[in-house]
Fold:
Amino acid sequence: MNSTDNTDLPTLTDTANRAATFEPMTNEDERPTITVAGVHVTLYVDPASRQVRVSIDLDDTEPWPQRNDKDSTVPLRICIQDDVTFEG
Structure:
């Protein structure tokens, strides 16, 4: 985990979760997006396929959730109906 400048992880996570934002779809070129700690999650129903789609954009992730590996990867856990479908 990256340096948090003497701030403990529970405080950082609580602050990030409370500061989450939601941006609704306002035109045909956008999708509804939730942002937490710089991670943007887009969730929408595709009109052509009727699939529910989820997209996760990690480009703006704040430093503290990133791993200290060469790529600064972000740990993710994805669950569907309480079943873990991805963890890495």
In short: The CA atoms of residues 28 and 48 lie 14 Å apart. Helices lie at 9-18. The longest helix spans residues 9-18.
